[in-house]
Design goal:
single chain, about 450 residues, mainly beta, five-stranded antiparallel sheet
């Protein structure tokens, strides 16, 4: 049986709006904004055995916090043309090429006072309202070559700019796009990518754009499968440094692995340090957790012209996040989601164990090397966390970790709020949502100001 149609991977079938949510504990008064997360949520699954989880239409889940209250919860499908058609609703705007129209399902983020659902591969972003309704296709990052803002766009707190490393399926180059606070492109730089690598994420430092080429490459003949990627064992992995001020890319070769997500990167006395989640073996998009990714530090010695790799933490983990104010700078703390698959004998079919996930959030102290784990237990299905600095912001880890956690007894989700400086202690608050939030992908804290 395909586990990605069962348990808390299974899609929800209704859109819900609920107000004045019940809370256990106390929501900090300085949390004023919306916690949003997006993920695949197919409108229907024709063949469960062949279903690929990452291909479901995007659905956004959000909670509005203000004055110590949880004012509302909403979940909404992103209304691409096909989603609007299937729901019997009018289309919201029009994309330039309907063949590339899809309901984004990878990231939801704000920029320039607007809210966007983002995806990758040349598929269009969609703009959303503050109540998660779809405005329509957006031109964020759009270029003449048909690229647009990618799902892992990075916000530069120093300039107010949004940086995106965008690829388009089948193109032999990628583009570094810099978007101003007004939503307009300030610069576009082409970067050759002749092997058609799958570039899911990248990093920024003060002077460089950091990106990764892996053996996971696009193969047009695999388009019909829905997952047009293949691990080419003849290719190495490479880390590229593009000067933000302009210039040529410097390449550094590593062993063949795939970087899934970036925690952070920074410059340190003639080196570029990049902390990344690495998949040590090929990713199976039909079973996204099977590659057991770990957290590594890649150090690029610019004078010696070489890159070295060091294991930071070996527990399988993904979805790394940090205090965004330290993005691209030296930092101390990072956070990630850990999950181990377990199997227990089934009460009805002992030869077919019940599967589930034991979920935890990890807090990495990269100065001391100590990692703390907040364990949520079996079937909790805790995904990516977002760190929100407190209003006083006295230290890097002075703030809160927000995460959706499945409550198996209720069959619904809680928005759990942890004090980052008391990471293993009891949650400050649990906001009890009226519905299940399936395991998803990436999200954001959108402050009211």
């Amino acid at each position: 049986m395909n586990r990605y149609v069962l348990g808390n991977f299974a899609p929800v079938t209704e859109e819900i709006t609920a107000f004045d949510l019940p809370v256990s504990g106390k929501i900090p008064d300085d949390l004023d904004g919306r916690y949003l997360r997006i993920g695949p949520n197919p409108l229907g699954i024709e063949d469960a055995s062949a279903h690929v989880w990452t291909l479901g239409e995007g659905m956004v889940h959000g909670v509005r916090l203000r004055d110590g209250r949880a004012e509302w919860y909403r979940n909404r499908w992103v209304r691409s043309a096909s989603v609007a058609d299937r729901l019997g609703e009018p289309r919201r705007g029009q994309v330039a090429d309907e063949r590339l129209d899809f309901a984004p399902n990878v990231q939801v983020a704000g920029h320039g006072g607007r809210l966007y659902a983002l995806i990758e591969g040349g598929l269009a972003p969609y703009e959303l309202t503050g109540e998660l309704d779809t405005v329509g296709p957006a031109s964020l990052g759009a270029t003449e070559q048909g690229f647009s803002a990618n799902a892992h766009s990075k916000y530069d707190h120093a300039t107010g700019e949004l940086h995106s490393l965008a690829f388009r399926y089948g193109a032999d180059f990628v583009q570094h796009i810099v978007i101003g606070p007004d939503g307009r492109n300030r610069s576009v730089t082409d970067i050759e990518a002749p092997t058609l690598p799958y570039m899911h994420d990248f990093a920024l430092t003060e002077h460089y754009v950091v990106f990764y080429e892996s053996p996971m490459v696009f193969e047009p003949e695999r388009l019909a499968t829905g997952v047009p990627f293949h691990w080419n064992r003849e290719l190495p992995s490479r880390l590229g440094l593009l000067p933000r001020a302009g210039g040529t890319v410097r390449w550094f070769e590593t062993a063949p692995v795939m970087v899934g997500h970036t925690l952070n990167a920074f410059e340190d006395n003639g080196t570029v340090v990049v902390d990344v989640v690495v998949h040590p073996r090929p990713i199976d998009f039909a079973d996204v957790g099977a590659s057991k990714p770990v957290l590594e530090r890649w150090t690029v010695d610019l004078a010696a012209d070489r890159a070295t790799r060091t294991l930071l933490h070996g527990r399988p983990q993904d979805f790394p996040r940090l205090n965004g104010r330290f993005g691209g700078k030296p930092y101390r703390y990072g956070y990630s989601a850990a999950a181990e698959l377990y199997a227990t004998p089934s009460a009805t079919e002992p030869d077919r164990p019940d599967e589930g996930f034991s979920s935890a959030l990890l807090k990495h102290d990269l100065l001391t090397g100590v990692t703390e784990a907040h364990e949520f237990g079996r079937d909790a299905s805790a995904g990516e966390t977002v760190f929100v600095p407190s209003a006083r912001a006295a230290a890097e880890d002075d703030g809160y970790n927000l995460v959706y956690v499945h409550d198996r007894d209720r069959g619904a989700a809680d928005l759990v709020i942890l004090a980052a400086q008391d990471f293993t202690g009891e949650p400050l608050a649990r906001v009890h949502l009226p519905a299940r939030v399936p395991l998803g992908l990436h999200g954001s804290w959108i402050p009211a100001t």
